[in-house]
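Objective 1.3, modelling of assemblies. Example input:
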Amino acid sequence: MKKVVKLLVVSLLIMGLAFSAVGCTKKAAEETKTPAPAAKKVLTVGSETTYAPFEFAENGQYVGFDMDLIRAIGAVEGYDVKINTLGFDALIPAVQAGTVDCCISAMTIKEDRAKVIDFSTPYFKAGLIVAVAQNNTTIKSIDDLKGKRLAAEVGTTGLDASNGLKAKDPKTTVKVFDSVGEAFMELEKGGVDAVINDMPVTSYYIKTTGKDKVKTVGEVFAAEDQYGIGVKKGNAELLAKINDGIAKLKANGEYDKIYKKWFGDLK
Amino acid sequence: MPHMAIQYIYGSNYIDSLLAINGLQVVINNFTYLLEGALLTLQITILSVVFGMLLGLITGLFKLSKNRILFTIATAYIDFFRGTPLYVQILLLYFGILPLFMNFDNPFIPAVIAISLNCGAYIAEIVRAGIQAVDRGQMEAARSLGMTTRQAMTYVILPQAYKIVIPPLLNEFIAVLKDTSLVAVISAEELTLRGKLLYSTYFEAAWIWGTVAVIYFIMTKILAILGDYIERRMATE
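Predicted structure (C-alpha cells):
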C-alpha cells in the first residue's frame, strides 16, 4: 500500500513538473517568433479536404472555393501556399500548435472557436440546411426533426444544431462522422432521417453525387453564420496580411470571379 | 496524501492554480462522459473476442482439415482479413456490404461484426499454430489407441494446444481492445470518438488525448495482469 502511495506521489510530481515545463517553453517560443524572414515565405494551410465545393481533391489537386481564395491571398501577399489536409476536428489544435500557419476549411466563426484562435474578416456567408432522403415526405423543416435520427460531421455547426435538437428532445439520436460525406452515405442507406450541414456544401452534394437520392427541406437557418480563416491567437502579423489579402481580392473583382466559378448558379 | 506532498513542494496555491488549468477542468467535467465511452469500448471488445474465438476455432480447424473446400474457405477468410486494414474492413462492411442485407439503427452491432471477423482471422492462425505445436506423436499415439481423429483432437490435442494458445490469445485480446478505436469512424461512440468529440469542442489536445490514452492503458494493463495470472495458474497445473 505504501509503495502504491509513493508511486502515486512521484507520478503526480512528475506530471506537475512536465506540465509546468511545457508552459515555460510555450512562452519562450512565442517571444522569439516575432522576427520574420525576408524571402518568399511558405504559408502552410490546414484544411479538411472532403468538403466540396469549398475544398476537395480532384485529379490529385486540392481545388474548391477556399483553395482558390487562399492561393489568391498568397499570390497578392507574397506567400507560397502549401495545403495540408487534416481532420476538421484537428484543424484548430494544429493552428494552436503551429503545425500549420492558418486554416481555411469552411469554418464558421463562432464564439468558442474565437476564444482559442483568431479569425480573419468573414469571407463567406453560409448558414445551415436540413437534408433528407428524396422519398421522405414527413420531414418538411427543422421543426419536424424532434425525436428523429440525425447525422453530422464532427466539430461542425451542423453537429451543434443536431445536439441542440437532441437537448430539446432526448429521443433524438445524433451520429457523428469524420466527414460529411459519410453522414450523407448514412442518410442514403437509411441509417438516419436527416443531415444538418452547411447549405452550399449540401446543395453541391445534391447537384453532384446525391442526385435523386437526397433533397433539402425548409429554409436556411443560422444564416448569419460566416466563414473565417483561422490563425494562431496573437499572430497579428499574419492576420493583417490575410485580411489585407481578402480586402484586395474583393476590391479587384478576383473574389467575385472565384465566387462565380464555384457558386455561379447558387441562390 | 499526494495532496499534502504537492502542497509541501509547490505551496498551498498549487492545487488552486492546477484547477485553474482549462484542460484539467475539461477532463474533470467530462470524465464520466469518457468512462461511458470506455464502457462501450469494453462491451465491443468482449463481444468481439467471444465471437472471434468461436470463428477462430472453427476456421483454425478448417485450415488443418484435409477437406479441400473447408481448407479453401478458411484460407480465403484468413488471408482477406489479415491482408487488409481493419479500418478499410469497417468502412466496407458498414457502408458497402451490411446495407445490402439490413439496416442497423445503432452502429454497435456492425462494429462488433467487423471486429469479430477481423479478430477471428487472427485467432484462427493462433489456433492453427497451437495445434501444430503439439507433438505429432500425440496424435499418432491417440490414433493407435483406437481413437478416431475427432476423438483424438477433442481429448488429446486440443487440451494441450489450449495451454500453448493462451499467451498469444491474450495478446490478441489486448490488440482487439486497441483496435476498437477504429469503429469511431462509423459513429460508434466509444472512447476514441468521445475523445474526438470533446477535443473538437474544447481544443485541449494534450489533456483530452492524454486522458484517453491513460484510460486505454489502464484497460490493457488490467488485461495483461489478468493474462499473467492465468498463465501462471496454467503453468503450475
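The longest helix of chain B spans residues 31-64.
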